[in-house]
Inverse folding.
């Protein structure tokens, strides 16, 4: 009896699902990609909403309910009065990390936990001396400490407020002190070349001028650079990944920012290490400076166009089959977030699949407004959106399949020649700096 009932149930299920099975068998590979993408979007949206709800619940649970208490500071002399000190319990800011917004930092934007940090100093206001490096001057007019920015004219620091300049001096002192305790941090000439004043200011701006957080981030980058040696990667080290033209630096946009073009539809390898190496090479090429020590440090109140990058991601030809592995995507975001802070100006997603648009609209209410403004979608079928390309890019620096005059067909020979010239110049500049450092040591 039980067997007959099971057979009957199986027969009913087969009859009910027969139309669906027939439809699935008729689907093309593109239809399958679309269906899988839709399922992924729905799951991702519900997961994001659940994480936000959990984060808010945890935040409320961890928030202290006890009122602020007033204590009296002990006196050491009869001439000293008791000073009342109001101590407020620290607020646990956990929502940003728990809710899965760590990827925001990949755009060079600091999420809410930094922006809402009550201990973060206000640029231009020299108020918190508790985090200052030893022997750092407490006023703009005092002489700089030996480990502070020096040997530069005053005009070099003209784009910093007095408070920001003080923070830069403190940061330089903390970095030098850390290098004494851990010599490997600045053990090579390449690492010393990397930590110029402009670089230090980028880490300070990314952490809202909080010295402790900026130093922690910079130390992590120095250890990463000591291990990966990004300046020493050449085009021939990633020749297989470069062969398809899936990634290259094309020129400048109308704000004089270097443009990095990415074409996921031309993905030709699935090797994780090779793709990451090629990403690092491309980013280093886009931000390369022959004389980094001459780059002026920039404060929060000035434009940063000369330091920024524009990412132009052309999704034409993209399918789930060409999508990189999740491991590669995660490390890509981590590298952009942790080791290239304050670099991204805008990311233009050209001709994205509809699943990207659906996913973006679903999560946009939970995204920091500053980050939201940096991501732009362009549908070539909509004239208003396509016109944005002409406003951002000159025709000669924009591929013809995106509305420009530049030939979109990838010329591997020309690309390799350009990379060889860049690699040769880079090697020469690094050698010159190493020789100068060796003379200082003598």
């Amino acid at each position: 009896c039980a067997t007959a009932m099971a057979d009957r149930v199986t027969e009913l299920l087969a009859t009910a699902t027969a139309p669906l099975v027939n439809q699935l068998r008729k689907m093309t590979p593109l239809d399958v990609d679309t269906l899988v993408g839709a399922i992924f979007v729905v799951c991702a949206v519900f997961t994001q909403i659940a994480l936000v709800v959990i984060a808010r619940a945890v935040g409320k649970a961890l928030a202290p309910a006890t009122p602020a208490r007033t204590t009296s500071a002990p006196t050491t002399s009869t001439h000293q009065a008791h000073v009342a000190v109001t101590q407020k319990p620290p607020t646990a800011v956990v929502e940003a990390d728990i809710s899965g917004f760590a990827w925001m930092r990949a755009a060079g934007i600091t999420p809410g936990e930094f922006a809402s940090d009550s201990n973060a100093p206000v640029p231009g206001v020299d108020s918190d001396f508790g985090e200052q490096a030893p022997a750092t001057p407490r006023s703009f007019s005092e002489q700089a400490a030996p480990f502070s920015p020096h040997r530069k004219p005053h005009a070099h620091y003209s784009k910093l407020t007095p408070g920001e300049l003080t923070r830069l001096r403190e940061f330089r002192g903390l970095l030098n002190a850390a290098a004494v305790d851990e010599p490997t941090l600045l053990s090579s000439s390449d690492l010393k070349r990397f930590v110029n004043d402009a670089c230090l200011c980028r880490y300070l701006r990314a952490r809202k001028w909080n010295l402790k957080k900026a130093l922690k981030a910079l130390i992590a980058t120095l250890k990463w650079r000591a291990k990966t040696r990004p300046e020493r990667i050449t085009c021939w080290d990633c020749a297989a990944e470069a062969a398809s033209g899936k990634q290259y630096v094309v020129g400048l946009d109308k704000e004089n920012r270097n443009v990095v073009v990415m074409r996921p539809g031309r993905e030709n390898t699935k090797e994780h290490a090779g793709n990451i190496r090629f990403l690092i090479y491309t980013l280093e090429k886009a931000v390369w400076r022959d004389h980094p020590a001459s780059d002026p440090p920039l404060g929060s109140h000035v434009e940063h166009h000369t330091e920024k990058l524009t990412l132009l991601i052309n999704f034409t030809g993209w399918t789930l089959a060409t999508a990189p592995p999740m491991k590669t995507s995660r490390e890509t975001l981590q590298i952009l977030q942790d080791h290239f802070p304050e670099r991204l100006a805008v990311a233009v997603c050209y001709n994205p699949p509809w699943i990207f648009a659906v996913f973006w609209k679903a999560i946009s209410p939970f995204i920091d407004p500053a980050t939201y403004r940096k991501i732009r979608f362009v549908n070539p079928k909509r004239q208003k959106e396509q016109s944005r390309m002409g406003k951002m890019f000159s025709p000669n620096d924009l591929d013809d399949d995106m509305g420009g005059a530049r030939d979109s067909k990838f010329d591997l020979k020309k690309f390799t020649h350009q990379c060889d010239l860049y690699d040769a110049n880079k090697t020469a500049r690094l050698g010159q700096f190493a020789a100068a450092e060796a003379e200082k040591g003598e």
Remarks:
- The chain is about 45% helix and 10% strand.
